[in-house]
Amino acid sequence: MGVFVLGSINLDAVARVDDLPRPGETVAGLSLELFLGGKGANQAVAAARMGAPTRLMGAVGKDDSGASLKVKLAGYGVQVADVAELSGAPTGQAHVWVSNGGENMIVVTGGANMMITPQQVAATALEGQRVLLAQLETPASAIEALFKAGAAKGGLRVLNAAPALPQGAALFPLTDILILNQTELATYARLDHEPAKLEEVSKAARKLMSRPDQTIIVTLGKTGVAAVRRDEAFLVEGRKVKAVDTVGAGDCFCGALAAGLAANLDLREAVEQANAAAALSVQKPGAAPSMPSKREVEVFLEG
Ligand code: RIB
């Protein structure tokens, strides 16, 4: 059973710097590389590399970047028949700065990603798609159309509500599994600090639930991952690895989790597998190119 991703496709221009610049400051870049990125594309690549038949719905511009990103996606095993090439907008771009200390800053110019319509989504056949996965770099109206159509077809609706946007919260009632990081949880739950301990995370996550059958998963960086349901909460501890580039680690987690759920793993197994995949992804540069294969994750989990 497959994973259907609705999401963004970006050309990531990644500059490495010693230290991130402050407002008004100019700093020298140590290197500049171009990668396939975008939360939707990254998550689709992660799911496909974990062995799930994966379709991506999105949009690129009718330009050189759009064509080459589609070729790259297909090279990772992602089905791209639902990726439109639009003449009215350029391919999305992300300007990413990564410091030697591993911190990053990202500016995304959405371009064609923002042109996806609910009508396009509603016209798509979703038969056989076990997991429907979306993020917030495409219009909320399109995600709403996907989740409404998906519910009728029995698909599991997974929303990675990143970046944190006010319109994201309106999608929570349509969602079966919500994935957030600590910062996003604090924003949506209107907290004045980022919760860290499982008890505090659970309390904040439950504030966002609107149905008893919802699950909220919170990625907690080095601490690990918390999974919260109405009546239970558990923590899968983070794995100690040396991070080279954390851009796309959250996307790796989401895509790998979707692949695990599509393969009928139970929630804890799927979270453990996705946690291991994300730990492997931070050890390589780039977002999409750092997604590990299923075999690499299995070896890591055995070791
Ligand atoms: O989550 C990382 C991604 O966010 C990058 O690949 C960039 O394109 C932005 O969408």
Summarize the structure.
This protein has 303 residues and is an alpha/beta fold. The chain contains nine helices and 14 strands. The strands form two sheets. Strands 1, 4, 5, 6, 9, 10, 11, 12, 13 and 14 form a ten-stranded mixed beta sheet that branches.
Fold and architecture overview:
With 303 residues, the protein is of the alpha/beta class. It has a single domain (2-9, 37-93, 105-302), classed as Ribokinase (UDP-N-acetylmuramoyl-L-alanine:D-glutamate ligase, 3-Layer(aba) Sandwich). Helices cover 32% and strands 27% of the residues. The chain has helices at 39-49, 64-75, 118-122, 140-153, 182-188, 198-207, 249-262, 267-281, 294-302; strands at residues 2-6, 10-17, 29-37, 54-61, 78-79, 83-86, 92-99, 104-109, 129-135, 156-160, 177-181, 215-219, 224-228, 233-237. Strands 1, 4, 5, 6, 9, 10, 11, 12, 13 and 14 form a 10-stranded mixed beta sheet that branches. Strand 4 (54-61), helix 2 and strand 5 form a beta-alpha-beta unit. Helix 7 runs antiparallel to helix 8. The two termini are 29 Å apart. The structure holds alpha-D-ribofuranose (RIB). Alpha-D-ribofuranose binds at residues 8, 10, 12, 37-39, 42, 94, 106, 108, 137, 247-248, 250-251, 287.
